[in-house]
Amino acid sequence: MYITEDGIRLNACIERPTAGPEKCPMVVVIHGFTGHMEERHILAVSKRMNELGFATLRVDMYGHGHSDGEFRRHTLYKWLTNALTVIDYARGLDFVTDLYLCGHSQGGLTVMLAAALKHDVIKGVIPLSPACMIPEMARKGELLGKRFDPDHIPDTLESWDGRLLDGNYVRVAQAIDVERAIDRYAGPVLIVHGDEDEAVPVEFGKRAAAAYRNAQLVLIPGDNHCYDRHLDRAVDAVGAWLKGRLKADAAR
Ligand code: FER
Question: Domain residue spans in the chain?
């Protein structure tokens, strides 16, 4: 199915819990930079959510997976408005009660930014290995393992896999204020991060968790950016935290 934002089709997939009541909470799940909604870690966390009674809405963001848009023209602003559109779509579904956000890496940063803007309607946020360093690194002139002049951004950058990325990606990233977004969201947050992450240093996950008012941090010892070594532990951390949210709701 597609969710359309101003003519741009975003490829999406809704999965409902295998058993349980008619109405249920939903988690929007967003992949990272160059990723898509069928990645192993995205599918694994979503499956656990379904097993625990949460519907999931996995979505390919602008220029990724089977969504419209060119990779080279994607920016964090586009991903952010994509997320707002998807959140509103989810809120309009008659079987959805509470809404949660989960995102991996650049998708983790995106859900942090979206939660700030939609703080009054988002029940909880799960940034996985969140790429919170992108704005800071963009301002320093160091992205994709390459250096550039942050005051004279090149028109195109080359990504790891040889794909090209517009300089506008960097210009947008430079404008993003992660600290302010963190301040704006007071709800519960779970950050999961492998302590041998090669793409997003674990310090950024630690720093974000410390800055949030209500965050739990789960470190996965020896794991990398996409949890290739201990995906089960990352999934367990997400599952345990979501169970805790259900318990907290039941106690109210
Ligand atoms: C970078 C490091 C990591 C970068 C992007 C990422 C654009 C994002 C990784 C991901 O989303 O998995 O230098 O530059």
Answer: 2-132+177-251
Q: What pLDDT band is residue 19 in, cutting at 50, 70 and 90?
A: confident
HEC per residue, 155-217: CEEECCCCCEEEHHHHHHHHCCCHHHHHHHCCCCEEEEEECCCCCCCHHHHHHHHHHCCCEEE
Task: Please name every residue paired with 4 in a beta bridge, in sequence order, or none if there are none.
Answer: 9
CATH code for the domain defined by 2-132+177-251: 3.40.50.1820
What is the whole-number distance in angstroms between the Cα of residue 111 and the centre of ligand 1? Answer: 15
CA atoms within 13 A on the CB side of 189: 32
Hey, which of 74, 144, 157, 178 would you mutate to test ligand 1's pocket, going by the most ligand atoms within 8 Å of its Cβ? 144
At 152-188, the pLDDT tens digits run 999 999 988 899 999 999 999 999 999 999 999 999 9
In ligand 1, which atom is closest to the CA atom of 145?
13
Residues 6+ apart with CB under 8 A from 115: 101, 122, 125, 181, 184, 185, 187, 189
90-145: pLDDT as tens digits:
999 999 999 999 999 999 999 999 999 999 999 999 999 999 999 999 999 999 99
CB atoms within 10 A of CB 38: 14
User: 163 is written with which tokens?
Assistant: 């794909």
Q: How far is the CA of 143 from the centre of ligand 1 (A)?
A: 7
